[in-house]
Amino acid sequence: MSTTTHQLRVPPAPWSSLFQSHLSHLESPEFVLSTLHPTPKETKAPIPYLPRLRYCIYRGMWATLPENKHNNAPQNPRIYESDMPTFTTDVRMQKVGELFATSAGHAASDDQEQGSGGGGPVEAVWWIKDVGTQWRMRGTAWIVGRDIEETRGDLPGKVSSGVRVVKSEVGRRLRVVNGAEGKEREWSWGRELTAHFGNCSPGMRGSWRNPPPGTPTHNQPPPKGHELGQKVTDLEDPIARENFRVVIIKPDEVEQLDISDPAKARRLLYTFVVNEEEGKEGTGEWKVEELWP
After folding, report:
1. DSSP string, 218-286
2. What is the pLDDT of residues 108-145, one digit of tens each?
3. pTM of the predicted model over 0.90
4. Strand residues in 171-231 grouped as ranges (E)
5. Which residues contact 279 (CB under 8 A, 6 or more apart)?
């Protein structure tokens, strides 16, 4: 795996197993994702950002793609695992621009938003009614596009700043699976991206051929090649793959609110901290604090 920084030594998150167990109670693992949208200048609002929320579908943890017998895409060997939830999106959706616009580096141009990068702040919330528990995650979200394995044409051997920062920020939180030490170079970011595309249904893949989301119809049918309801079976469909993105949530705080028994309700707050002094790579760990609900 090509990364630009050393990985942290990160143990499995103490909340992850229960979180994923709770998600199995959902018919569809939907969650609410909150981002920040730059306030339009013409509104003259006194605040720089406005909240934006939408439902998304959880697609598994990055590097541990859920099994799908219908997925015939090449897949990575089991070398890495993580506690970073993923979802898929269309690069033309507003949320993509928001993740670039609110990141620490910001995007210098619209062209940068077409590739990997982002890193803006997000909050994600799941409500698991069957177990009376709400899960809330706060952190940053990183976008993986088709350029994730590409080098810059003007500087052979060099990757874009977006690719570099994604591999750095996300790569630090990956863990090598026991027994896979020394095999890291067999794992590919691009292969993982294609495997996510393959894990989506043909109808979902077809949605990435739709006309640009949120643009006026002008009472006209969709342009040729962009009809609604298409089913895509080609894993390298040029239009769908141009628009397809995987987004990785890198949580810094995870909150578990358990109200299944009102007499024993508790809120657990997990906070990720890094000790840079322990070795060259540093050590990451999750601190937990019990709070009143």
Report:
1. TT-PPPTT--TT-----TT-HHHHHHEEEEEEEEEEEEEEE-SSGGG-EEEEEEEEEETTSTTT-EEEE
2. 667 789 999 999 999 999 999 999 999 999 999 999 99
3. yes
4. 175-176
5. 9
The mean of the pLDDT values for the chain is: 93
Tokens standing for residue 114: 């077409």
Looking at residue 109, the DSSP 8-state letter turns out to be S
Quickly tell me which residue has 């079976």 as its tokens: 233
Biggest CA–CA distance in the chain, Å, is 64
Mean pLDDT, residues 201-219 taken together: 97
Q: Which residues on neighbouring strands pair with residue 128, listed in sequence order?
A: 133
In angstroms, the CA 221 to CA 237 distance is: 22
240 contacts 92 by C-beta, under 8 angstroms: no
Nearest CA-CA partner of 249 in 72, 86, 105: 86
At 263, list the tokens: 């007499």
